[in-house]
Amino acid sequence: MAYAALHDIRSEMPQLPIHEQSKPSIREVEESILLIESYVNAVLKSRGYTVPITGGVESLKILRKLVRHGVAAQVLRQTHTGIRDQGATGRTEHQRIFDDMLANLYLPDATSGLTEEPFFAGGPTYDEDPVFAREDEY
User: Fold this and answer.
1) pLDDT tens for each residue of the chain, 138 residues long
2) Which SS3 state, helix, strand or coil, does residue 75 take?
3) DSSP readout, 83-104?
4) Prior bond to 52 cis, omega within 30?
5) Distance (Å, rounded) from C-alpha 31 to C-alpha 50?
6) Contact predicate 58/108, CB 8 Å
């Protein structure tokens, strides 16, 4: 399931025409969407969420906004290469929002793959008969 689509990116950046001949093109923007969504899914999975997120209206709204800003930053990076050009400020702002949202991401109605007690709760346990032992220990 996609968290965002081309029309979401167009609405985030109405000043930037996106078509087959533009830089970036429709295909490149759609590839950026897939890339950012894959990155977000990897982060979510590392935090214990079951991915892709398919349920939970609130979670999907949050993810749509997150992906929109991530893709907008990437698209503006492809479009504007100079530090002092018009896109630099917008790119920086979209990147900042994306980074902040991702760092503090909490999905209230998404399915978490974590159990109530993680497998490592209570500290490490060791086998009575270790697999790797020096010969002089036996």
Assistant:
1) 799 999 999 999 998 899 999 989 999 999 999 999 999 999 999 999 999 998 889 999 999 999 999 999 999 888 865 555 555 677 889 999 999 999 999 998 887 755 444 444 444 444 454 444 455 554
2) helix
3) TTSHHHHHHHHHHHHHHHHHHT
4) yes
5) 23
6) yes
